[in-house]
Design a protein that fits this description.
α2 packs across α3. This protein has 198 residues and is mainly beta. It has two domains: 109 residues, Gyrase A, domain 2, CATH 3.30.1360.120; 76 residues, Heterotetrameric sarcosine oxidase (Alpha-Beta Plaits, 2-Layer Sandwich), CATH 3.30.70. A hairpin with a 2-residue loop joins β12 and β13. The chain contains three helices and 14 strands.
Length: 198
């Protein structure tokens, strides 16, 4: 029997298959759980004199402007607040790599990999689903691919990482304890467009 600590946050919630108004539609939404991510939060100490512009992790600079994301094929670095970032990667040795790049005298380094449920939603109507529950103005040109924002979705705190607009694709991060509620909120909002759980 699979041990509880090995279960993904949405193991009992995420369903595969076709749902909602999917018949005779070509552009169905796709919803999947993103598993096995390393998610490390780093926050610069106020007493640190290190210059952020000189810091690189996995050959990526730390973004210094709100909403910005640095990325390569393996890793994304999300600006989540002043002197605070999330580093997200499929690399299992990410934390070791971070410790090689920065000193713990300059940054608080916290592994939050097990504390987040991560959904990916993609398709031409993905933005419309997010508009239903989030106060973010998705019509503005200010929020575009490789931007991220902390917001709420139907009262649940989430982080939106905007990956692409061809078609629209977003990674959505919620606290693990709210994962099931968040998943059902997103999928309920997707029913009118039809979606495929993958």
């Amino acid at each position: 029997m699979e041990q509880a600590q090995n279960l993904s946050p949405l193991h009992f919630d995420h369903k595969l298959g076709l749902f909602g108004d999917y018949e005779n539609k070509e552009n169905l939404l796709k919803i999947s759980e993103i598993k096995d991510l390393s998610i490390i939060q780093i926050a610069k100490f106020k007493k640190s004199s290190i210059e952020i512009e000189k810091v690189t992790i996995n050959q990526l600079n730390l973004p210094t402007e709100s909403l910005k994301v640095s990325h390569n094929q393996e890793t994304r670095v999300l600006w989540t607040g002043p002197d605070t970032w999330l580093i997200i990667s499929k690399k299992i040795d990410l934390k070791d790599e971070i410790y090689k790049s920065i000193r713990d005298e300059d940054f608080a380094i916290t592994d939050i990999s097990q504390s987040r449920a991560v959904l990916q939603i993609s398709g031409v109507n993905a933005k419309n689903v997010l508009k239903k529950g989030s106060p973010i103005n998705f019509n503005e040109n200010m929020f575009k691919p490789n931007n991220c924002v902390n917001t709420t979705y139907n009262g649940i705190n989430i982080l939106i990482d905007y990956l692409d607009d061809q078609p629209f694709c977003f990674n959505l991060y919620a606290l693990r304890s709210f994962g099931g509620s968040f998943y059902h909120s997103i999928t309920d909002s997707s029913l009118e467009y039809g979606y495929e759980g993958i």
